[in-house]
Amino acid sequence: MSGRIRQLSALxxxxxxxxxxxxxxxxxxxxxxxxxxxxxxxxxxDEAKKNAEFADxxxxxxxxxxLTGIPMALKDNICSDGHLTTCCSKILQGFRPYYDAAVWEKxxxxxxxxxxxxNMDEFAMGSASETSVYGAPKNPVDITRVTGGSSGGSAAAVxxxxxxxxLGSDTGGSVRQPASFCGTVGxxxxxxAVSRYGLIAYASSLDQIGPLASSVEDAALVYxxxxxxxxxxxxxxxxxxxxxxxxxxxxxxxxxxxxxxxxEGVSDEVKTAIEAAICLFxxxxxxxxxxxxxxxxxxxxxxxxxSCAEASSNLGRYDGIRYGYRAREFSYIDEMIVKTRTEGxxxxxKRRIMLGxxxxxxxxxxxxxxxACLLRGRIISEFDEIFKSCDVLxxxxxPTTAFALGDKSADSVTTYLSDIxxxxxxxxxxxxxxxPCALGKGGLPIGLQIIANxxxxxxxxACANFFEREAGVNAELxxxxxx
Length: 483
Ligand code: GLN
Known about the structure:
The chain is of the alpha/beta class. It contains 16 helices and eleven strands. The protein has helices at 4-13, 19-37, 45-60, 102-109, 152-159, 176-182, 216-226, 268-283, 296-314, 333-344, 347-360, 365-386, 412-417, 423-428, 457-471, 473-477, and strands spanning 40-43, 71-75, 113-118, 165-170, 185-188, 208-213, 254-258, 287-291, 392-396, 432-439, 445-452. The protein has an eleven-stranded mixed sheet, with helices on both faces. Helix 8 links the parallel strand 7 (254-258) and strand 8. 56% of the residues are buried. The chain binds glutamine. Residues 124-127, 150, 170-174, 202, 307, 419 line the site of glutamine (GLN). The site of glutamine has 13 residues, from loops.
């Protein structure tokens, strides 16, 4: 299905509108709509105007790509030279990086137009974007609901069309879960497919940048533009996208349905919607088989042990000397560091630093961190086994639809449970896409997750494209939101 990028690109190429005019339209939409949604936490309108000028030049010279002149947004943890990038944390207040993240460098070179930085959970820790120091963004489908997290601002901006597409980061589900809650497409590529250079680290062995977009085709276009090996990120690899032009023969497709993803906590309406999606593939000739991932039950604790351990180390650099915020009153350096960290980090971030320090401490390292690493290996081999006889797996993206703002913010553990369906693919480094498959009670979107084997990103996207076209749901969910 032709998404927003293709439509806008056609207008630009045929000179019905210039990149400068299109940018102005988006800027006035942001000025009108963002005060309601709180999707952006800072804008880069000066940059956008410069980018648009460059885009118009590329178009005039016949050097445009589909992303040239298209207005977009970056999550507030992706660096861009000279622009505020704060991870929505007080500790990075006023921080302006002096270099571009690899992803923005690539997009800028193609004439992308950067409108601003989007709201997120502080340091990407959360599932509702409510731990942001700027307050939570609101879900454009129903503004009393959360956007999901942590890339909630990116999902809201795409849904409300105040960005044609946006980048988010996904450590345990932060691109896919907000995509599911807001009714957009969200894609987490194979670990390493996209350079993490310039992404402010949360948990380095899990972090991955991915697009949020209004259609599968749009997500694939953006993914193609940002992927590739980068010497500045030694975990990056070049990946073949494959599944050319998003087409795959569904008749020869072997689909696995892991039963653990449908266990308690998953609401009935979500189960029904996903079963209906599975039937659609089956009717088209795909072979569907029920499979088991017994290690699913340890995925959540494994994820939280490993991600907190890595976060406690990554966040050690915020000491009041090198970046952002510094406490005002102190008499010696240690006191300055302690005060800066005490005042600069929010509650959830502190909780995770403490958890991470605990599981890495000498007395508990073997019992927690080492065991979690061993179990991570088991989860990976169970997926490997399943992919010997299945091409893709179909599951829900999240156990429920978007919950009410403020509903879960008091209780971390219930919030952690909303990641249950997304963390397994993160732990195993697998590509996974979430796309709208139905509307639940109150018209709230439900997301279908398609997981593929490592480096089969193209196949995951092709299956999603097939579903989007056959089910015709996305068009309905992506109609312009009236605000
Ligand atoms: N909700 C998960 C967490 O809090 C995932 C966040 C993410 O993917 N960045 O860690």
